[in-house]
Amino acid sequence: MGDNIDSSRHAPEEEVSTVDKSMLRDLATAHRRVILGLLSGIIFIVVNGVVVITLKSHPNNVLELIDELLVWVMVGIFLFNAIVIYRLASMIGPEQAIGILYILLLLFLTPVGLFMIWRLCRKATTILNTNGIQVGFFGADPTSI
């Protein structure tokens, strides 16, 4: 996994060796996890908003407990996203792994952080497409590589 993937190594028409397929499969898995992590963050924001609005209009012990549990869910989602973003960045290149520290800090400045993560995912998509792998909304299917 520590191997860097360089999109300029292969022409799109060339056959990819089994070693390269393994690296591409790892890249596709990391790419998909980043996308799913971001989607889970969006779902969390919606659920948290509904709980907070409901809690303000109808105070309830169960909703207060759910609200407290959601704090731990948020921490878990943040840690998951931090790990998968770092892994994807380190697969693309070491300079990306250093830059990822800035991205993690920028997650608190949501628009800038999301733009940087989008660029990282775009780079992974380009590498996969260059090697002839179809990438959909949820990334490439690692089992199809």
Write the layout of secondary structure elements.
Blueprint: H1 18-57, H2 61-92, H3 94-106, H4 110-130
Helix pairs in contact: 1-2, 1-4, 2-3, 2-4, 3-4
Based on the model shown, name its key terms.
single chain; 145 residues; mainly alpha; 4 helices; 73% helix; elongated
Description:
It is a single chain. With 145 residues, the protein is an all-alpha fold. It has one domain. It is built from four helices and no strands. α2 (61-92) crosses α4 (110-130). The longest helix is centred in the N-terminal third of the chain and has 40 residues, at 18-57. Residues 7-19 have low confidence and may be disordered.
Oligomer: single chain
Tally the helices: 4
Task: Note the run of SSEs as H and E.
Answer: HHHH
The radius of gyration is: 18 Å
Beta-strand share of residues = under 5%
Q: Uncertain regions: pLDDT < 50 for 5+ in a row?
A: 7-19
> What is the global morphology?
elongated
**End-to-end span in angstroms?**
16 Å
